[in-house]
Amino acid sequence: MQKAIDKHVILMMGLLFLLNRSLTYGPVVTFLAALISMELIIYLEKEAVFYGIVAVYVLACFFAPGLIFFLPVHIYEFVYRKKWWGCLSCALFVYRISLFHGAGQILLWIMTVMLAVLLAVRTGQQVQEHAAFLKLRDSSVEEQAKMKQRNKELLEKQDYEIRVATLSERNRIAREIHDNVGHMLSRCILQLGALMMVHKKEETLYAQLSSVNASLNEAMNNIRESVHDLHDESVDLKQAVVEATSQMRQNYELQLVYDMSPQVPRNVKYAMIAIVKEAMANIVKHSNATKVSVMLREHPGFYQLLIEDNGTQIRENKHAGIGLTNMRQRVEALGGNIHFRTDAGFAIIVSIRKEMKECG
What we know:
It is a single chain. By secondary structure, the chain is an alpha+beta fold. It has eleven helices and five strands. It has three domains: 2-129; 155-233; 237-359, 2-Layer Sandwich (Heat Shock Protein 90), CATH 3.30.565. 69% of the residues lie in helices and 10% in strands. Strand 2 (291-298) and strand 3 (302-309) form a beta hairpin. Helix 2 packs antiparallel against helix 3 and helix 9 runs antiparallel to helix 10. The mean pLDDT is 78.
C-alpha cells in the first residue's frame, strides 16, 4: 500500500511539468500512458514484466519527450528493487530535457528524481523492518509453543518416573514381607503344628493351641493376599509392553501407541502382556514382516489391543497354533473377544469388556 502511495505522489509531481501547457490531447495521453505503465507494474509485480514495460517506456521517451517527466516513477521501482544501475537513465535524459525546457524545470525534475529515490529507500527499509518483525513474532510464537510442549513432556516424564519409583517401592515392600514376615509366620505355624501333635491328648491345651494356629493361618492368608495385591499393583502395563517390544526395533519398523489409564485390572494387564510377548515371538519366528504396529487403547466400555504386521508369508507351525490358542483362552477367560486377520498382513484384534463398576 505504501509503495502505491509513493508512486502516485511522484506521478502527481510529474503533472507540475504539464501545468504551463495547453489543454490538448497530447498532455492527457502522456499522463495516461505513464499512469497505465505504473499500474501494470504495481499489480503484475513480475520482474520480467517490469523490465519489458520500462524498456518500452524509455524508447517512447525519445519520441514523446513529455513521458520523461514521469520517468521518476520507474526510477522509484529500480531503487526499491535495489537495481541501482537503472538510475543511470537519469543522466541520459537530463540533456534531453534541457533541449526543450529551462533550468527551473530541469531542477524540478532532478528534485523529483531525488524524492523518488528517498521514498523508495524509506519504503524498502519499512518493508524489511516489518518482515523482520513478523519473522521475529512468528519465531517467538513457535518457540513458546515448543517450550510449552517441552514443559508438558517434562511433567509427563516426571509423573511417569514418580509412578515407576512408587511401583518399584511397592514391589520391594512386597518382596520384603514375603521373604521375612511370611517365612517367620510359616515357621511359627509349623512349630505350632508340632506342639499340637505332641499335646494332642491334652484337650485344654490342644484347644488353645488350635485357636492360636487358626489365628496364625488367618494372618498368613491376609499377608499373602496383601503381598499379591502389592505385587500386582507394581506391574506397569506400559513399561512391560515397551520392554516386550523393545527388541523389535532392531529389525522392524515399530509403531507403539499406548492410551490406557493407570487403573487397569491386573488380570487384564497380565493377559495383554502375555499376548504381546507371544505375538512378538510369532512375528520373529513365522513372518517375513518389516513393519509392526502395537496399539493398546482404553474405551469407555472396553479395553482394546491391536497387533498388526505387514508380513506376506505366514508359515504355519504347530507351536504358533498353540500360541494363538493360548491367546484365545486368556481372552475368553476374561469374557473378551479375539480375532485373527490374515489379509494385508497378520493382525490380532482383542477387545475385553470392562466390569460395570469400571464403566461407571
